[in-house]
Automatic annotation (TrEMBL), chains A, B, C, D:
Pfam families named among the record's database cross-references: TetR_C_4, TetR_N
Keyword DNA-binding: yes
Gene3D superfamilies reported in the protein's UniProt record: Homeodomain-like (1.10.10.60), Tetracycline Repressor, domain 2 (1.10.357.10)
Protein name: Transcriptional regulator, TetR family
Superkingdom in the source lineage: Bacteria
Length: 222, 222, 222, 222
DNA sequence: TATGAATGAGCCTTCATTCAT
DNA sequence: GATGAATGAAGGCTCATTCAT
């Protein structure tokens, strides 16, 4: 378990192998995929810096080193850019998390792994945190029209761990996995939101153990 | 101490007597003050509904039942409208809080009163909460140019309670009131922010006692 | 022939008795006439200072010490204000000039009197000069719709002097009064325009004799 | 010396070869330069027709055959459009004048050339005359903020001729070139202004010889 | 595929004019 | 008559999006 695996994929990082199908979906060669990635990363930076509504498409283009029009070859419009940040980054996150979790065996270790990666990931990529926790929630398009498939997948990932824990007998049998996975996610999400709103001034990583204690205590067999 | 006093002044509410000087400050008779108020309340609604950048001045005007141009008789521009929401509502809040707190005697009761009013107030006026916790923080004008005098006054109000508590011997003598008042405000502010970001789905009021416990435990003589 | 008679009626000056019919025409008592006058004088000042299009009706009202709406009790609109400056001031000018000219006997003296008053008048009321020579010529309404009855009257006044001069034998018999009066006016008008455009930096009065020489030489019997 | 060289560059005219650096300065290829030129020429027309304040940016756009927004790709704002007319047209004028003057040898011929081109140029492009002599002087932005570098260059061009004349012994040695060049320009400028204000009804060209007489007489060795 | 010049819909703001008091 | 708060039409300007090259 290396440090790298704790970070979210950022500007320079190569695409995870499992994301090959994502490329196929968009019919991209690696060069095109690079540009797709560059625009997305530029958008994260600019959105985080200025906020969605005060970000200019032309500024994102400049940041990405492409022409304004090029952005519209990869994304439908400015809204789509924001929503794609969520979709793509979440897919990458889910892949990385799945891989990392697969290296652990028991449910408790896997939960610890997920919590650690969630908090460390946002801490190491604060611009993405700002976009996820602030900008996306202000986007009426995102909140109303987008079905957040990736969020469901992430919740499922958590659910799988909880299910395993119940089977292992580590977690209480009477727990509702459907509710509990939302509880786990909600806790992590709130932690990151609070950290963002507080100006990202403290260390999120130090909260891993307390949060795990809380979660395991709440769901555990006592 | 009635429930009403726990709520923030909203659209329908009459101006507090102590706010007479506010009217004088702006040189308004009651009719102009009514319109000033109506526009401000309309702006709170629309900003909360759409967000600042997607709110149209004309929509605020329609909501307030005035012509577009009328808004500019009372506010310098759209930015000023947002900043004025903070300034005016905070002044009203501070007045109400001071009055309510004056009815209590000891510092602990007063702190309880303030905490209760802070949480209940935002809960009863969720649109104001959205503007205070989300829109204002995105306004670069607000963050950079406005000195937030009213915030200082609110912090002072908290400071006075803490000072009293130290004199009463309820709070530790070695506490820094300057820091502690920020700690108290920061805690309340974070609670409300988290509640807003979470979609205002749970009851803020239920957090009064836990928060007080936390605060009193942290500052108390043990 | 006193100096005062060389000046155009300005802010403080009382209305000429012959303007009584002007008052009647507008059905005004002296108080209303005063206000009418005050607004007109204020408009001259503001138009001269800022130019017509950059002058605000509210600024004219402030300068005149009346409410914005009051202006519309005396003038149809902003355009009418500009045109009325011309009409009213010209009427006053014509009256004063007629009176002064009546004190002279021969045509040459009368022409000298008119030239002197024309140049001295604008020099002593530079704001009116700016409005007459610059603002009015930019007003499409004035240039297209207004028939400039007062200009005709002024030309007639000049024509009468020239006619007399021809009868006296001082001016050539073969002169066309219709053309010559335009020539006289055109010369004076150009002098004042040039003076205004040059920033009113030199003395218009010093041009009385050269101009008279030119005019008399051109029209005289040699 | 053909007639064409006496005219100012107007809508249809090709850019002078020496203006290639102007294109470079703005980093424009010929197509962009064409559009820049088209907008400028349209602005001259519309400003001359309606006056600056009554001209609509959308009307200039229509006249130029471009969209409203296109204007803002080439000019900062409406004010900049007016000031650019002066800057660009003056640069072109200075180039043309320098070329034409270079074909003459002695100072007197060169001064005659300049006077002739100045008067003939404005006569052949009356819309530019209206903008130069009327609209620009009303623009507070132009009068206050713009340093009129091109005017200095034009004055310098005149100064060079006068200097040469002094060396040739045609002009008096005791003449101050610094003042005399202003005198020459002022005379020409006043002539054109008067002509514009008078409705451009007479022939400016006929004034070349009288003006030259005046200038040469005033500055000459007698 | 990539470009970036061109587009034009839309919004904030101003200010001449009106009208209830 | 006098007021000045209110009106709302109109215009300068921005910027997401398109499309000819």
């Amino acid at each position: 378990m290396n440090d790298c695996s704790f970070n979210f994929p950022t500007a320079g990082s190569k695409l995870h192998p499992e994301l090959a199908n994502h490329r196929k979906e968009y019919g991209m060669r690696s060069k095109a995929a690079d540009k797709h990635q560059a625009i997305l990363d530029a958008a994260v930076k600019v959105f985080a810096r200025k906020g969605f509504f005060q970000s200019r498409v032309s500024e994102i283009a400049r940041e990405a080193g492409v022409a304004d029009g090029t952005i519209y070859l990869y994304f439908k419009n400015k809204d789509d850019l924001l929503i794609s940040i969520f979709a793509v980054k979440m897919q990458e996150i889910i892949c990385r998390f799945r891989d990392a979790i697969a290296l652990e065996n028991d449910a408790a270790s896997r939960l610890r792994c997920l919590v650690r990666m969630h908090l460390a990931g946002f801490q190491s990529y604060p611009e993405l945190a700002a976009v996820f926790q602030v900008e996306l929630r202000q986007s009426s398009r995102f909140m109303r029209e987008y079905n957040k498939e990736e969020l469901r997948q992430y919740l499922d990932l958590i659910g799988e761990i909880l299910e395993q824990g119940r089977k292992e007998g580590v977690f209480r049998q009477d727990i509702s996995v459907g509710l509990a996975k939302r509880f786990v996610f909600g806790t992590l999400d709130e932690l990151v939101s609070t950290w963002v709103l507080a100006g990202m001034q403290y260390d999120l990583g130090s909260m891993v153990d307390p949060v795990l204690n809380l979660l395991l205590h709440g769901m555990g067999r006592n």
